[in-house]
Amino acid sequence: MTVGNTGPGELFIIGFNGTQLDDSLKKYLNNIPSGGIILFSRNLVSFDQWRELASGLQELRLKAGNLPYIIAVDEEGGTVSRMPDDNFIFPGARALSQTGNTNTARTCANAIGQILSYTGSNLNLAPVLDVNINPMNPGIGIRSFGTTAEETARYSTEFIEGLRSAGIFSCAKHFPGKGDIVKDSHKTLPICSATKQELENIHLKPFIEAIRHQIPFIMTSHAVYPALSNDNLPATLSHEILTGLLRNKLGYNGLIISDDLEMGAMTECGEIHEIVYKSIMAGCDMVLICHDAKKQETAYKFVLEKYSDDLPFRNRCDESIRRVTEFKQNLKMQNSLFPEKVKETIRLAAEKSMKCPKNESLRIPLDENVKSGKILLAGTKFRSEIEVEMIGRTPYEITDFHNYLKKYIKNIDMVSWDINPAEFCADKIRKINFDEYSLIILCTNNAILYPNQKNIAETILDNYGEKTILMATKNPEDIYISARAKNIVLTFGYNKANIEAAGDFIIRGNLS
Fold first, then answer.
1. For this structure, is 259 an active site residue?
2. pTM score above 0.90
3. Is 11-328 CATH 3.40.50.1110?
4. Would you kindly state where each structural domain of the chain is located, as residue ranges?
């Protein structure tokens, strides 16, 4: 089956390097007529450049006589954002649920959608529907709306509706749920130990609710689910899970898209052409190959060959080509106006999301004596090694937070360390004279997952808990590092808005 110039290339969503549509990129994209493009931070310099790039991509596509591109972006907010300006990064999923108001999630998603519409993107690979029940999960954490199926479903459906109201399509991920795994699929292949009953009662429920809300895309998980299938394959490659469960049992009739097939989890399953073939046969309608041009070319050529001489594969491809082409009839043109009052929406959401579960030694807000004394900002750098797509810009960091605090505190020093500092670094930090400071603001970043970071935080809290404010900048489980933590602030993300809202709270107490 072909419609116009459509063919198996429609089943690919690919990424590329660069910020401009130059002649070499045009030639490459014409040679690989993929159905979609995914943009990363490496492609985006400003909102107007993003808009120009997307417009050029669509013009190239239409001139070739093809259907429009699906132009996708990962814009979850929080720790996974492609916004080219930190002032426009929204609080992430867990932060939004902490506001206690589902309308905040809808409002923020609508504003995100308006920005994406202005830039010419039409698909947001969000929201995350994983129920984060395991605090040792390295890849999800605060990307999830919550630790229960009900909370996750309630906020994610509002997020979906917010995007929809702005004309942007959403994608629920990562089916059938990655909330109870302890390995990061960017690096290796996880195995989900959840029972069938746990998967049905917890992890599948947000996806079932999203299907009820007519979610247009569902992204697959690169994890193995022994309780759901006997094939010992990750969900992305499992016919039992994608076709048997998602299509047939749950009745999903939208598009199934793979997570990036270049992740470490997938490299354990075969060469790129084999993985693409297996994922399509399992039930994927579109496959993501985000980085390597050679892998994209290899996979595309292999699919063309198999499409010609493998009838079962051709039939499977035709089924997906039909879904993709029908979906593209609903693609809309970009919005001509950048949304107003976005920064205010972000600020209010960040302020409402922040929590202060402990203030036992009454360090918050800072009194004038403490503020005029010597203060230390100490802690882990915000950005972690698992954020594999942080390329092309310098994101907001602990050094930026230090500069922000200096506006209000005359004498504030800073010391920082990596997310899992080497032992020699930990020894050096322990030799700091903490006694000379009247207050310590201690930032952690998932310390429970990193022994050396945890040891440093424990040492400071055990010895100086009374005059320390523990500021957990990512997962809230860091509150359990030490029983001596007397003053705690939870930010649920280290994007600029959340961190500075926490800073304002520490300095002056209740926020407006």
1. yes
2. yes
3. no
4. 11-328, 354-508
